[in-house]
Write the structure tokens for this entry.
Amino acid sequence: MSETSTKSIKERTLESTPTWAVATVCFVLILVSVFLEHLIHLLARVSICLRVALSLFKWVLIGRSHASVFRFVSVLAEQEEEMRRWESWEAETRTLEYQSSNDPRRFKLVHQTSFARRHLTCWSDHGILRWPACFLRQFYNSVSKVDYLTLRHGFITAHLSEGSTFDFQKYIKRALEKDFGVVVGISFWIWIFLVIFIFFHAHAFYNYLWLPFIPLVMLLLVGTKLQGIITKMCFDSNDKSNVARGTLLVKPSDHFFWFGKPKLLLHLMHFILFQNSFQVAFFTWTWYKFGFRSCFHERTEDIVIEFTLGALVQFLCGYVTLPLYALVTQMGTSMGGAVFTENVREGLKRWRATARKNLAHRDPYTTRQ
């Protein structure tokens, strides 16, 4: 082999390597990583050092994509600002004025309630016009006061008792914190997406014209669906009765959600946030590794589109979709474990352990069964 060919091989860098080759190598490394991780969990005999090393390997492999954790925390901070209004709404439910105006002994026609006037409109009667209306509604006061109070009343009536002083706002906050553990995780399908994402970064696919728009389109679809669920709940209540006692009663049910699974929206939000954060992280990593103007970002419009859409998705998610998601997903058939505070859950665990211990002293055979 000549000296010139040897030199060219040595100077071959990742920047000049075909995209399909990079994606294939990453796919093999990901499979090995996932296999090792599952093996570690099954054996349960690995040291802390190995766990840290495996985590670092994943972090480097996906181009520092764990920036998604930081970005989701920032989204939560934005959503926290939006939910501060809910605290005042929750406090209002404990006032005499609210309890008097929503007294169950007061009857009114459904179409006279504020909730019905917001959702039972002329275009809501037609499926073709309803969804465009729901699409536009998410951009203006996505979670209104009347929506919050009506859904709160429906949740408490269905799962607790009518007139309960249950703090619905704190329950939603605990449920959202529980969902945080799912959103910051990385499943096997997310790994597959990372390989596809790298593969489509080849110049021939013109990914800057369509790939950054995927999180935005999915986010708008989820927001439209959530608004549609509120509208359908209003229609469902109106079909059952034309008279409301105090506050219009909506009935939580899984059938309002896609495939009857409220948790599906959580996984969609997970994918949207991860994809959006990974695109920004991938751009930052390639900028750091190969410079601002590299084969990954040869066009100015590529850079503008990625950053503009990344910021737009984060803004819409924090101020529009995430608060709407936090409220509407509580309207499933069953309530989540977040209905109990941490102190109550710990107390129930201690009570259960004590009960099992006492039962063991009385009848050891039954406990072993």
Remarks:
- The chain is about 70% helix and 0% strand.
- Residues 339-369 form one domain.
